[in-house]
Amino acid sequence: MKELNSKIPAGPLAEKWTNYKAHQNLVNPANKRKLDIIVIGTGLAGASAAASFGEMGFNVKVFCIQDSPRRAHSIAAQGGINAAKNYPNDGDSTYRLFYDTIKGGDYRAREANVYRLAELSNNIIDQCVAQGVPFAREYGGLLANRSFGGAQVSRTFYARGQTGQQLLLGAYGALSKEIEKGTVKMYARREMMDVVLVDGRARGVIMRNLVTGELERYAAHAVVIASGGYGRVFFLSTNAMSSNGSAEWQAYKKGAMMANPCFTQIHPTCIPVHGDYQSKLTLMSESLRNDGRIWVPKKKEDADKLAKGQIKAKDIAEEDRDYYLERRYPAFGNLVPRDVASRAAKERCDAGFGVNNTGLAVFLDFKEAIGRLGQKVVEEKYGNLFEMYERIVDDNPYETPMMIYPAVHYTMGGLWVDYELQTTIPGLFAAGEANFSDHGANRLGASALMQGLSDGYFILPYTMQNYLSDQIGVPRFNPDAPEFMEAEKQIREKINRLMAINGKQTVDSIHRRLGLIMWNKVGMARNEKGLKEAIEEIKALRKEFWQDVKVPATSGMNNELEKALRVADFLEMGELMARDALMRNESCGGHFREEFQTADGEAMRNDAEYSFVAAYEYQGPDAEPVLYKEQLKFENVEVKQRNYK
Amino acid sequence: MKLTLKIWRQKNNLDKGKFVTYNVDNIPEEASFLEMLDILNERLVLQGEDPVTFDHDCREGICGACGLYINGHPHGKYKNTTTCQLHMRKFKDGDTITVEPWRSEAFPIIKDLMVDRSALDRLIQSGGYVSVRTGGVPDANALPVNKHDADLSMDAASCIGCGACVATCKNGSAMLFVSAKFSQLALLPQGQVETYERVQKMVARMDELGFGNCSNTYACMAECPKGISVTNIARMNRQFLAAKIAEPLKK
Fold first, then answer.
1. Residue B75 maps to a domain
2. Do B219 and B126 share a structural domain?
3. Distance (Å, rounded) from C-alpha B238 to C-alpha A120?
4. Spatial distance between the Cα atoms of A452 and A443, rounded to a whole number of angstroms
5. B-chain residues within 8 Å CB-CB of A506?
6. What's the average pLDDT block by block, 10 residues per block, for chain A (645 residues)?
7. A353, A393, A635, B208: least surrounded by Cβ within 10 Å?
């Protein structure tokens, strides 16, 4: 068995990162020029890492799946980014951001990683402002803050409802600067097919050029996977259409471990599902919960009338409304963490109080806020979100409350990495949503942007040097080496196999069926029976896919083939997620096992037996993976049942 | 809904290309325009025909990947709406809809409705950023910014880089795109340090890449899905003139 060494530096929590930086190995500027780094993905983590590596003098090759690095899915993040600046003077500190994030993650993340994240949060805001990111400001010219779920302070920096876009464009600017200088070479419309190992170290990748359909081989001294999350295993999610888990999955099959794969975030405020042709779901930013109040009718007959369209929200009297989050969680109210808010919505809808014709929707109401602040202020804060809602739903949220329902949004699980963000394959790093590191079992709002940028701007530039410091004598690799040729050959065979099936079902139709299995049995609420069924159903569906999928045998650009390659991996990932959920006999964060709940329906953790990171090692097709446990030690926070009441 | 679609099909950049007519029915009104194309493609795949290629990704109007010429307008005729946010309820049962790719010299067609917009990336590379390195920057609140300027900067920064402005411009000009990035930075003290250099470099790159000039028809603003204003173009023109006089770049 491999050893799972998290490499947490010694010393007190607040000094670990400082100590690490003081004692790590560095690479001198002349040697940096001789070293090549490959980065997969140009979201916040990938773009910021690639730009920073370039500035330091490394030779960088960076790949993205879209036509431009500016379109990575980080761009869709709406609400904001957390930092412990304490500008509002409301009691924030590095420790408090650390504590909230650990607690929000339901005590399933590493203390040292999360503390470092909180520590670096302030540097990120400084960096982004210096880049010209137009954050919201007060009249005095200083930066504005708002509050987000899971926190009692206002620590979220934002750029209207487009914070992800603005941060990504900042990182894209930094990347563009390096591309212009020639330190970074950009390859767009490429998808990673495999990572290549030479003598046990990651030394390159095989990419598919999505325009020509050709396979391309690239070599480097180290590889960073920053390809985002795998939420599209559920088919319907808030992720972009090309978001996928295949880069992670290929790394897993080559020996990197997948950690906590079942930890999935179901976001509470999304536009409800309305039809079976639907391709994706749209998020309505969590920031809306600052001023919006969530409710369903108190009386079932009102819910029935709403479903039939006989009455509207405004016809229900104030005393007949159940503001269930405020009722159940008076301390945090509408700002409870996402997992809690999602489950509470499901609970009400399952009990028959849903407010639309599918019964799967709750109201998010701004009437009180409009009365308190005036429509103009509400418009200034959330205008673009309201417009987006109206365009999709054809309903004016200034007049009638929004209808929302939870949807798959983010995967906390991902490639297992140590403190240096290195996977169990030497030289293979994972950053951003692609790794598992900081969010435990539930990510707090406005933390994904923080993590992506801290990984890319401020962690990898250090830890990568530590890895490369003993690689300076290693000459550039030849991408025609046998390891590369063999990897390419295997991919070609896989592609040919897919095209030869010529079955009767489209890739999307099978993907939808996988999504339904995942949503119903590996979704917001899970139980032993359902998970066991899911494993069998996914296996059967995988078999069906490989016998009956129809992929056009077109050479060159082939969008169906792209999707088929991703779905082939999702059909394996889904099974691992179900296995992990079945293994974890407790409820924590986004992982809710119906068998493990308190009398009033709250998640019940089992710290004695499950306070560990579950890391899985691939054992070959159809073989059960081996589970490794990284025990989590809590020395700086008191582990207790999360309480938002 | 029952619709007749006239869709531009073109195998690659060398192919001549042509309109092909498809009849689709049972299109739900709540579907987005791209979901309607998904339904068509699903059918084409099952019939053994080549599905229609188009760019798309986030499908929530922010990534800028999608962009179709629909009935003669980029992203369709509705204001402030990207193709992915256009819904079928905006059409009538029985409508004929013409779908074309962006057509502009700077955007060669890759296949069908997909074009190569990498020229926009090259424009940004010429100077559409503040040249700061990672680390070593001052505290974020060390530099107050007038709220009005910050808001204007954010308005300009909302550009999603879809290229509709270029596609609709009779001159194939990228002035709205470039001036949006320029203005975002010019309105902030962080960006002002490099203003003169930036404006000259970006304008020079625009010429190199074969984008046309601006003749103030305002078509770009009318079609921009994010409502980017032509006042940004005026701001850039003024600064360009000032830069040429004050600090001309050495050739």
1. yes
2. yes
3. 40
4. 13
5. 42, 45-46
6. 88 97 96 97 98 98 98 95 97 97 96 98 98 97 91 93 96 98 98 97 98 98 98 97 98 98 96 90 89 96 95 95 96 92 95 94 96 92 87 92 96 98 98 97 95 98 97 94 98 98 97 97 97 98 98 95 98 98 97 94 94 97 95 95 84
7. A635
